[in-house]
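Work Package 4 report. The design task specified in the project plan requires that, given a folded chain encoded as structure tokens, an amino acid be chosen for each position. We show below one input record used in the internal validation round.
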């Protein structure tokens, strides 16, 4: 029996394609097909950790695989960020603070990952302004900034360390407001608060969750917030732009990131899922209790936020030669 030309061509095409079928089927296998690790660069109980654990259960249900929160603590979150950048298992994600996704390498060229090249934005989870605070005896509003200008370099401000958003935000404020307080770094925000109450510091930028409790207790005076307009997290305080400080729009935030090597289709699926979860009323309430205004953006939305932060904070870092210690 002889084959016709058409039959021979069909047989040959099938013979060539047959070895490729297992690879093609594997490439189209459902994702994820194993547990997903959600890296956090800070210890249990920290803000990024609480956010990651709040997301883990609904994310697990949506993806159909266990989601394991994995704390890789150290170097201000950069150890976890580097581990994410190097992950090649296709099942590793991370909840990060803004510094690790934006200015880490600008602050420390020795950092072994490039956030703009090695990390892929997934979704902006939550944002919050910083709150400019002063001792309870300080004046408020425009009078506060007039006093700050008259004090020259006699005033001090505190932050939880060189290169933190609290430090860079104050340097940005100094440039915008024409004031000149001197920086005093502390190990963390609790020490900054104690120094404000003791009168060793005249101003600082604190996260809302910490600032509001101390303002309500009468231990600190709230001056304004660093967001472009009033924040729903701190509705009673004016934005600094309302007090005449133009060009200062700064927020702290956390977001979900993936390795740049993760396929775009997987990133899109996670982004859609996280965005939907974050916008659910129950999750909004959980994030608000942690001091965050829920967002739930697309990858492009987070990428735009990263670019804006790199532009504004990068300019301060370069102009003043700031390096993380």
């Amino acid at each position: 029996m002889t084959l016709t030309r058409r039959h021979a061509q069909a047989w040959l095409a099938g013979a060539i394609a047959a070895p490729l079928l297992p690879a093609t089927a594997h490439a189209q296998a459902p994702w994820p097909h194993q547990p997903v690790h959600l890296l956090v660069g800070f210890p249990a109980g920290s803000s990024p950790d609480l956010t990651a654990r709040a997301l883990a259960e609904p994310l697990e249900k949506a993806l159909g695989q266990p989601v394991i929160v994995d704390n890789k603590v150290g170097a201000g979150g950069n150890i976890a960020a580097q581990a994410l950048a190097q992950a090649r298992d296709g099942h590793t994600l991370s909840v990060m603070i803004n510094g690790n996704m934006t200015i880490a390498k600008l602050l420390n060229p020795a950092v072994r990952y490039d956030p703009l090249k090695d990390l892929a934005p997934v979704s902006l989870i939550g944002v919050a302004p910083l709150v400019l605070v002063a001792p309870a005896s300080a004046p408020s509003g425009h009078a506060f900034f007039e006093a700050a200008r008259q004090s020259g370099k006699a005033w001090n401000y505190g932050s939880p360390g060189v290169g933190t958003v609290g430090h860079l935000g104050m340097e940005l404020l100094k440039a915008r407001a024409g004031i000149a307080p001197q920086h005093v770094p502390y190990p963390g925000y609790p020490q900054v608060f104690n120094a404000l109450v003791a009168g060793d510091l005249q101003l600082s930028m604190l996260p809302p969750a910490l600032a509001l409790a101390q303002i309500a207790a009468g231990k600190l005076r709230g001056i304004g917030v660093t967001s472009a307009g009033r924040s729903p997290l701190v509705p009673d305080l004016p934005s600094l732009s309302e007090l005449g400080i133009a060009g200062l729009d700064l927020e702290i935030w956390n977001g979900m990131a993936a390795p740049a090597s993760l396929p775009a289709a997987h990133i899109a699926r996670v982004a859609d899922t996280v965005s939907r979860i974050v916008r659910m009323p129950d999750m909004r309430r959980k994030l608000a209790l942690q001091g965050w205004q829920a967002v739930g953006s697309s990858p492009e939305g987070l990428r735009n936020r990263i670019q804006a932060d790199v532009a504004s904070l990068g300019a301060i870092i370069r102009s003043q030669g700031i390096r993380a210690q």
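The radius of gyration is 24 Å. Validation will be extended to a larger panel in the next phase.
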